[in-house]
Amino acid sequence: EKGGYDHFMLKEIHEQPKAIVDTYRGRMLPDEGIIRMAGIDNHMNKFLNAERIIIVACGTSWHAGLVGEYLIEEFARIPVEVEYASEFRYRNPIVTSKDIVIAISQSGETADTLAAIKLAKSKGAFVFGVCNVVGSSIARETDAGAYTHAGPEIGVASTKAFTTQITVLSLIALKLASKKGELSKSDLRTYLQKMQLIPTKVEALLKIDNKVKEIAAVYKNAKNCLYLGRGFNFPVALEGALKLKEISYIHAEGYPAAEMKHGPIALIDENMPIFVIATNKGHYEKVVSNIQEIKSRAGKIIAIVTEGDTQVKEIADHVIEIPETEEAFTPLLTTIPLQLLSYHIAVMLGKNVDQPRNLAKSVTVE
Ligand code: M6R
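^ thats the input. predicted complex w/ 5-amino-5-deoxy-1-O-phosphono-D-mannitol below
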């Protein structure tokens, strides 16, 4: 049932190229520059008239929501807020019928997310679900939605659910952008053609697994790790840290790279591995200067760079290259080595990768 893999998590990491294709298949026609999503198309006026989109979710799905915020604001120019469902539901939030709430949940059963949906509905908001499990409570409770077609995710650490959630959110952002006239037909076509290349690029990344494993072997005994990224890759830094915490029980924190100097920099010494996402677009020069700051404090730098990078290579202790793509789509690639890294570290430490202690696959209690 693990399809020849040692763990469900590894199987699911490797299923991502297919899962992403399954998620966009039938929804985008790249050469024609068309996106079809019934859940959006049937309620287009609501989306076009929305004053604000509020994304609610927990855990990894919340990280996907943050990527969604960057995508929707960048392309569709609709204001977006992202909230932990647990905070949203209890803080008497201001929600009106002019708001759209997007609830993201792999399982579709997360108690806090479900309660946030009920609250938003009671205040008149239109609620859209992004779920993986068909017919789940959240899928049923929402007014409309788009499924991720990731297939069953068994490993407690979410992997393919995350990348397929980002795929759906990318399509939503591009669709709304083109409807609003923020994106020309030819630009939409270009983006979709690049999206179509993502699964092959993920496939290529999965092949550098040995390199990631070597890095895992070097840092597996670390007590603390930092993950840094900017822009679209700031949420990926959070997600990288969560993956490591969950399955290897190593303390890790994700930060926007520029926040480092507002506190976490004090932690840096020669024992501190710092994973930095430094792809060639998205404030590259600024990330390079963040890396220099780490270097001058003797921190160990593991950088995720774009193929062909030379600048970061000179300073970092290790580099992992990702193929070139649109900046907005880089989270779909930068996430992969971080998933593999956590996986290998957890295996090397002898942890229960698929069922980490204290965690449940779906959190149906608040
Ligand atoms: O099923 P959901 O997406 O609603 O679950 C949300 C979180 O419980 C979940 O993402 C959790 O953080 C994962 N274990 C992360 O790997």
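The chain has 15 helices and twelve strands.
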